[in-house]
Amino acid sequence: MKIMSTKSFSFTHAITRQPSFSVVSGLRSTERGEPDFELMKRHHLDYVNALKQADAEVIELDPLEDFPDSVFVEDTALCLPEGAILMRPGAPSRLNEVKHMAPYLRKLYKNVHEIKGPGTIEAGDILTTEKEILIGRSNRTNLEGISEITAILEQWNYKVTEVLTPPDILHFKTDCSLLDSNTILSTERLAATGCFDSYKVILTYPGEEEAANTIRYNNLVLAPEGFPKTTRRLLESGFNVVEIGNTECAKIDGGMSCLSLRFTPKK
Ligand code: GLY
Questions:
Q1: Is the N or C terminus of the chain more exposed, i.e. has fewer CB atoms within 10 Å?
Q2: What is the arithmetic mean of pLDDT over 34-38?
Q3: Strands across the sheet containing 183-186
Q4: What is the pTM assigned to this prediction?
Q5: In CATH, what number does 13-263 get?
Q6: Apex 40 CA angle, 49 and 165, nearest 5
Q7: Is 261 a residue whose pLDDT tops 70?
Q8: C-alpha of residue 167 to centroid of ligand 1, in Å
Q9: Which ligand 1 atom sits nearest the alpha carbon of residue 171?
């Protein structure tokens, strides 16, 4: 597949963080059993290797035992060509994860903004496409948080579209992901809200809603293993798919996008 040069899925770098032993106590919406730490570590290694296969320079951070959910680095920042924006997570136990990410982004970016509050926002609720930035209001991302980030994004000339994360879904991107400059992978329930009406949409196969959270990094789509019918749809549409085990992160509501920050630094 031709690699298009676009800001929404062409990158040079990624940041990941090793799971901490405390990850087994990560936040979860429903109890699906304790994550198997060793298996999660193996899946995490496969994930990092897939990013490298897609030409990412991966900055692998050490585990943070005080923060069970800190493996899900995506929620701490939004990284764009113009600069990075440090988030203000809505989960109290995750608020201070941002302090542990900030020094790395300040080294890589000249321009680093921060959401000061009182609103909250997690980047799992933010989908960047070529023409707009969609932000889903959720239990973690509220109107004040959206309004504070919108002021920064509008200075950078982005069009911000506020949308709603479906009820009982952790983050907006739990249910969707960008596949190319005009194609979105989405669950049927999210697409039905009309938020992707101006895009080409590939739906997850019924019963495989958990497959919606993938990442496009350069020429590869990293997708969770175990959803063969949705993977087949992606392959038939011409995408290069690498499947990564996600059973253990899924027990604490994590997926492909949560596990990395993806960007091209700008000093
Ligand atoms: N367990 C991931 C989160 O709740 O943010």
A1: C
A2: 98
A3: 176-180, 183-186, 200-203
A4: 0.97
A5: 3.75.10.10
A6: 90
A7: yes
A8: 16
A9: 5
